[in-house]
Specification:
This protein has 8 helices and 13 strands. It is an alpha/beta fold. α6 runs parallel beside α7 and α7 packs parallel to α8.
Length: 306
């Protein structure tokens, strides 16, 4: 199931399951740029969009976050709001706590495009797995504070339309293991995806083929950290359904250790694997549609949507 594209003057719904946003910093107060929402909302409105902010979005009930019930209620509010066409939220920590409070029936009855990245992995994959509604991995509200041409083309091709019938690359991919495979796209931030596997919130059919995409970043841990998380994924029942792997940006320089680890995974499971800098915790925020059937050709460096 695929929701209608966001209208060019449509309504964006904002919530924040993984951090406490600030609308405007106090004079002299230093805050992470990704948590100051005044400029993000101004960027959305400057492009003609209206913005609905969820009721509990700025609460800090737990000191570091709104409560899990409040954050779940925010999603359900935006899902039920007939005006909202696109739900957008950022990363941080805390998204898995929200899963028990999501009303999946609301999302199925009111399909709309939903996008995030990083910690949003848990919510995006759970919504798709429990409703069949495609969700979108790769961008957060901060993209509206300064578009790159590449990021804007992905927004236009996946959120404002369905015109992107093949993944547009930012640069040439590194082929770790060759071959081609077909399946349904799933994935996201490596730790969240590994922890989601085997839970009741990700009831996937492991007899159906999947193309897995993952991303991580050196600021969270080195190649050894990523290797351990890949080990958890490889040991899961889900791994037998994986027919290809795309690994996103890890750092801004060559990382042969990570390429070698991805190659080991590909050779061990006889699947095509590639590395790219198209998506993840870097400058490039390509969008990958979770739930979309796709074909990965590692030797051609190509991902096509079917």
């Amino acid at each position: 199931m695929r929701a209608k594209p966001l209208s060019k003057n449509g309504v964006i719904g904002l919530c924040s399951p993984s951090h406490v946003p600030l609308y405007e910093a106090a004079p002299g107060q230093e805050i992470p740029w990704s948590r100051e929402y005044k400029n993000m909302i101004a960027g959305m409105e400057a492009e003609g969009f209206s913005v609905v902010q969820a009721e509990n979005m700025y609460k800090d009930t737990w000191g570091f976050l709104a409560s899990d019930e409040e954050r779940g209620a925010d999603f359900n509010q935006l899902a039920a709001d007939k005006r909202v066409e696109y739900i957008l939220f950022g990363g941080g920590e805390g998204a898995p706590e929200v899963l028990p409070y999501l009303d999946f029936g609301l999302f199925k009855a009111n399909p709309k495009r939903i996008c995030s990245y990083s910690d949003g992995t848990s919510i995006l994959n759970a919504i798709w797995a429990n409703t069949g509604l495609e969700t979108y991995y790769g961008q957060n509200p901060a993209v509206f504070t300064g578009w790159t041409d590449y990021n804007k083309r992905h927004f236009e091709g996946h959120i404002l339309s369905d015109s992107m019938t093949a993944h547009e690359k930012n640069s040439e991919w590194i082929t770790c293991t060759g071959g081609a495979g077909e399946g349904v796209l799933v994935g996201g931030y490596t730790m969240n995806f590994a922890l989601l596997l085997g839970t009741k919130y990700f009831p996937v059919d492991n007899t159906e083929p999947h193309i897995l995409f993952l991303e991580d970043h050196e600021k969270f841990g080195g190649p050894d950290h990523v290797s351990a998380l890949l080990g958890y994924i490889e040991q899961s029942d889900f791994m037998r359904s994986v027919k290809g792997l795309i690994f996103g940006n890890f750092c801004d320089r060559p990382c042969p250790e990570l390429y070698a680890r991805v190659k080991v995974l590909g050779e061990r499971h006889h699947i095509p694997t590639v590395y790219c800098d198209d998506f993840g915790h870097g400058e490039n925020h390509a969008i990958l549609p979770i739930g979309r059937r796709a074909r990965l050709d590692a030797e051609a460096g190509e991902l096509r949507y079917l």
